[in-house]
Every structure is written in structure tokens, then in C-alpha cells.
Write a structure and sequence with these properties.
By secondary structure, the protein is α+β, with helices and mostly antiparallel strands. It is built from 10 helices and 8 strands. The chain has helices at about 10-25, 30-40, 45-55, 75-85, 85-100, 145-150, 155-170, 175-190, 235-255, 260; strands at about 60, 70, 105-110, 115-120, 135-140, 195, 205-210, 220-225. Helix 2 (about 30-40) crosses helix 3. GO terms for molecular function: DNA binding; DNA-binding transcription factor activity.
Length: about 270
């Protein structure tokens, strides 16, 4: 788990409680001693935090003295947030069109720190398919959505995110891999498309395009994910064209007329 920088306004007990929630989310259930070791916190501290969350309905214990896990209350809260998002309301019909055209999984991703999080998806009907769920996250450094989003972000944000990627990614990124990533961002700015060449999962590739709002700011990415065996050159080219059109159409609905899409024909 990444260490949070200590700031003057940080409330230590809340920061620890957030760490507990994040660690709980990585497994279905945890033994108290196991959880305290993973967090490097005293058992008494972790236990008090768990009991507080249990009283609030965020954590449930399997039985008295048993293992702890997250309840569905957090999912419910997250769903309410997403339900208020006009971005998803706008994007969903276009993503369904992509699904209908290629029968490959389509994801809408938002940034969270140095990760991209799936906030909406349209799932292929094919048996061989990616098994990612809404709420799953992937490092910007390795994901097509992350590359598409970061390449078109504002310069100060790019610089800060790149700094965090270098300091917070584990295992550490080599100088050679970092230089290749920067070159890849330059390519994304030319084509509008980010790629994942099995960097996250063997046998699975992804292509992504950024989405812009009325201030011409990158706010999301839309991607198509598929097994490498189905992404022939011809299919890939069709998906690339369709993704660029989808990114343009969603951005237009959000009030954007970004230069990336201005020269595109229907």
C-alpha cells in the first residue's frame, strides 16, 4: 500500500481508517492478526477501527471472533455517485454501439491517483473475455486508458503524475521503461489512441481513446479490451476508427470540440 504524504491538516486516525478500508478491499475477508500485520498497525488499533466501521455498516464479521470483510454499503455509495454522473449517461449509448459493432468488452475509465478505475462497462457475449469488474483499477503506466488519458491531460498535472509514477510504482520502473513510456505518450498525442500490449494481462490487449469536456480537459477514457487472438490487423484498424469516432461523439455531447477530433469525418 502506498504511503500517504503527511500534511499539516492530516488527521492520523482517519488516515489509518482509510488504509484499513483499502486493505480490506483487496481480499474477501481478513483475520484480525493478518490484517494488522499487513497494515503494520497494532491489533488494538485495527480492531477499534473495524468495530467502528461495523457499527456504521461498512464492515461485517463472519461470526463472533471470526474474519472481517467489507459490506456492500461502500458499493452502494459508489453506485450513487456514479448514478449522478452525466458523463456516464452520455457515454453509455455510444459504448453500447461499440459493443454491438464488435462484441468486445467496452470500458469507461476515470483517473484515481496514478491508476485508472473502471466506472462503467459493456460486456462481450463471447465466452473468452476479460474478467474485470466495475471498480477494478489499473496503473496508468501499463494501461491503454491511462496512456490515452495522461497524454492529453494538462501539463502541470502530467508532470506531477509522472513524478508520482516514478516514486510510487512497485516494483520500480527502470529508466529505459520510463523513457519508452514518454515516447509512447508522444505517439498517443499524434494518433489519439493508447495501447496496452499485454502489459497488464498475458493474452489480453486494449485500445483506448480520451474523452474531453467543454473546457477541452481530458476527463475519462473509453477502451475496447479483447483477447489478443481476436485482434487481427483488420479488426484492430476497425476498432481504432470506431473508438476515435466514439471519443469524438461523447466529447461533443459534453460540449467539447477538441483539436484531436476536428479533422475527423463521419
Amino acid at each position: 500500500m502506498r504511503e500517504r504524504p503527511k500534511k499539516y491538516y492530516t488527521i492520523g486516525s482517519i488516515a489509518k481508517a482509510c488504509d484499513v478500508l483499502e486493505m480490506l478491499a483487496t481480499k474477501q475477508s481478513w483475520d484480525l492478526a493478518e490484517l494488522s500485520r499487513a497494515l503494520k498497525l497494532p491489533k488494538t488499533t485495527v480492531h477499534r477501527i473495524l468495530l467502528t466501521f461495523e457499527d456504521a455498516g461498512f464492515v461485517q464479521q463472519e461470526q463472533r471472533g471470526g474474519r472481517y470483510g467489507l459490506s456492500h454499503k461502500l458499493f452502494s455509495l459508489g453506485s450513487q455517485v456514479l448514478g449522478h454522473s452525466s458523463l456516464l449517461d452520455v457515454a453509455r449509448p455510444f459504448c453500447k454501439e461499440l459493443l454491438a459493432a464488435f462484441d468486445e468488452t467496452v470500458n469507461v475509465c476515470l483517473v484515481s491517483g496514478i491508476d485508472m478505475v473502471i466506472v462503467d462497462k459493456q460486456v462481450t457475449t463471447q465466452t473468452l473475455r476479460p474478467d474485470n469488474i466495475v471498480g477494478a483499477s489499473f496503473p496508468i503506466f501499463y494501461s491503454a486508458s491511462g496512456k490515452a488519458f495522461l497524454a492529453f491531460s494538462e501539463e502541470p498535472y502530467i508532470e506531477e503524475t509522472l513524478r508520482k509514477i516514478r516514486t510510487d510504482t512497485w516494483p520500480p520502473i527502470s529508466d529505459q521503461a520510463y523513457a519508452a513510456f514518454l515516447r509512447e505518450l508522444e505517439d498517443v498525442r499524434k494518433t489519439g489512441l493508447g495501447y496496452d500490449y499485454e502489459e497488464l494481462f498475458p493474452g489480453v490487449r486494449c485500445i483506448a481513446v480520451p474523452v474531453f469536456d467543454r473546457s477541452e480537459k481530458a476527463v475519462a477514457a473509453v477502451s475496447v479490451t479483447a483477447p489478443t487472438t481476436r485482434l487481427t490487423r483488420q479488426t484492430t484498424e476497425k476498432i481504432e476508427r470506431a473508438l476515435l469516432k466514439t471519443g469524438r461523439d461523447i466529447s461533443l455531447r459534453l460540449g467539447s470540440n477538441h483539436p484531436l477530433f476536428r479533422s475527423m469525418a463521419d
